[in-house]
Design brief:
Helix 4 runs parallel beside helix 6. It is built from seven helices and six strands; from the N terminus they run H-H-E-E-H-H-H-E-E-H-E-E-H. A hairpin with an 8-residue loop joins strand 5 and strand 6. It is globular. By secondary structure, the chain is mainly alpha-helical. The strands form three sheets. A two-stranded antiparallel ribbon has the order 1-2. It has a two-stranded antiparallel sheet with strand order 3-4. The longest helix is centred in the middle third of the chain and has 22 residues, at about 60-80. About 50% of the residues lie in helices and about 10% in strands. It has helices spanning about 5, 15-20, 40-50, 60-80, 85-100, 120-135, 170-185; strands spanning about 25, 35, 105-110, 110-115, 145, 155.
């Protein structure tokens, strides 16, 4: 796998907030992959997520994006695994949402649009609201966790068919391991 492949953004997790979690790959390994390491990469990710702010993000915005991502991760894992969420993460997300003023203003163009966020913080607030709605609404039941110990990526699995996250690497490693186990046990 090339560096370009490892650093490629993922947009296949089922929701923008889940795609934010995927900006850190192999999160639980000895060598995690940071896909959003600069304000420019944050700007690129927000643009590709259709959340490009009017004012480009800076270093403080990048720190805030990382903080939001790492606040959402333990919440997502807890909800997906039907465990009580960590109180500190709940408090942090609540505090973030309380300080996020980004009213909904719709714009009619060739389709219905929402006015672009003024700042990266406003864009992150939209993501945080989406996460809170997903984590507390009926869609929470669609959340699944990749069983690969170094990934543990959370993704939407509405039909319950997926066994691994959308990463081809996780599915490949999991299938190879399962095949080896079947051969070892003679099944």
């Amino acid at each position: 796998m090339t560096d370009e492949d490892r650093l490629a953004f993922r947009f296949d997790c089922g929701a923008t907030w889940l795609n934010l979690l995927a900006t850190s790959g192999r999160h639980f390994s000895a060598h995690p992959v940071e896909r959003m390491a600069t304000p420019g990469r944050l700007a690129e990710w927000l643009d590709r997520s259709e959340l490009a702010p009017v004012r480009p993000p800076g270093p403080a915005d990048l720190r805030q994006a990382h903080a939001l991502r790492e606040t959402l991760r333990p919440l997502a894992l807890a909800v997906a695994e039907e465990q009580p969420p960590p109180a500190g993460a709940v408090e942090e997300l609540t505090r973030f949402l309380a300080g996020a003023g980004d009213p909904v203003r719709l714009v009619v163009a060739d389709r219905l649009l929402r006015e672009p966020p003024a700042t990266a913080r406003a864009a992150l607030a939209r993501i945080a609201r989406q996460a809170a709605d997903h984590l507390t609404g009926p869609e929470r039941r669609t959340l699944a966790v990749c069983p690969e110990h170094d990934c543990r990526g959370v993704f939407a699995n509405p039909n319950g068919r997926r066994r691994w996250c959308p990463s081809p690497a996780c599915a490949s490693r999991g299938r190879v391991r399962a095949l080896r186990e079947r051969r070892r046990t003679g099944e």
